[in-house]
Amino acid sequence: MATRADEPVDPDHPRARRPSTGAVFLWVVGLTALILVLGLLTGTGVRLIGLVVFLPAFAAAFTSVRQTVLTACWSAVVVALSLVYRPAPNRSDDIVALTLTVIFGALSVLGCRYRIRHENEMLRLRSTATAMQRSILRPLPLLTDQVLMDGVYEPLQEDKLVGGDIYDLAASPYGTRVLIGDVQGKGLPAIGTAFAVIGAFREAAYRERTLSGLVDALEEAVVRHNAIAAEADEPERFVTALVLCIDDSPTVQAISCGHPLPYLVGPGATVSVLLEEADLPLGLGSLTPVPRTVGRFHFPFGTTLLLCTDGLTEARAPDGTFFPLEKRLAEAAGLPPAQLARSLHTDSRAFSAGHQQDDIAVLALRRAHAAGGAPAT
What tens digit of pLDDT does each residue of 163-182 get? Predict the structure, then answer.
């Protein structure tokens, strides 16, 4: 169904909260009455009545075109009646005053139409950007036969849904493949690199039998993207990443490409730091002939595997103190995955006094089934 240009098309958009016509009418009448009362009390009614001319301008900034037209007509009627009640000594002055009122009202209506057209254009652009960004990062939680992944994602720039941090999960024939990463830099170029890595992961996670092959495909994607960026005189970027393969066995395969370490939270608030060594970030693999190392660790049922980016590990208090992640993780260890991630995110924001310095991604994973195929509860 077609939508009129002066009607809201998104209930979350500020235009959806415009006042009703009745509220606008009461507001205009009230201001007019206030001007008239002040004019009577001060004896300057004729001079103050000129303020009514500006009512359409205020309406144009906040209301619809129809409401602005009604306000402009009201202003013209009030000014005309005031001139009839107390005409100026020179008749031409009355004509000029009424003409200016009509012209100012018409300009206000045109300004309102321009404002609403601009709002619609911005809304369409934002809707398109939202759809594109949602194609990069899928909303949490995500579930496969092996893993439930939930958490918090918050880009540094609040007007964007996606920043330099990335994550994804793919149910491949070889187990569930998990990716969390952080693109060097910020802004649209970083989002372009993020899109290249996510696209390569979603394709290679199903094609590559080994985790090393999957990471090699991600490396090639970053190298190709950097080559294209260099042709456009844009800087090359690298990507820190952690890639996991989780199947029905208790052992998880992992390759860390310069990314913050994963944490395993077990019963009794025990926190283990996994994968003590990390290889080079994606995009820098050519700097060493040594292939990336596949690490392995146990991920038993009932434990929580925490993945995060450096927006959490490098959060700082105003005095420069780093966020005590392991301590806070042990304190919140008994929480469900989603609450655990949100608790850490909230604590880090409070610890840094709300001064977020980077994108933040906090993911909590639990096995979807216990050994023998029993569903998780």
Answer: 678 899 999 999 999 999 99
Confidence (pTM): 0.69
pLDDT recorded at residue 355: 72
**In angstroms, rounded to a whole number, what is the distance separating the alpha carbons of residues 45 and 36?**
6
Tokens of 140: 């949490």
Going along the chain, which residue ranges are E strands?
142-143, 147-154, 165-172, 175-183, 239-246, 251-257, 263-266, 270-273, 295-298, 304-308, 360-367
User: What does the alpha-carbon distance between residue 40 and residue 311 come to, in Å, rounded to a whole number?
Assistant: 63
Side-chain half-sphere exposure of 112, counting CA atoms within 13 A: 29
Contact 340, 306 (CB under 8 A): yes
CA 94 to chain centre: 54
- For the sheet with 360-367, list strands across it: 142-143, 147-154, 360-367, 304-308, 263-266, 270-273
DSSP state of 210: S
Spatial neighbors of 355 by CB under 8 A, at least 6 apart, are 318
Supply φ then ψ for residue 237, to 5 degrees: -130, 150
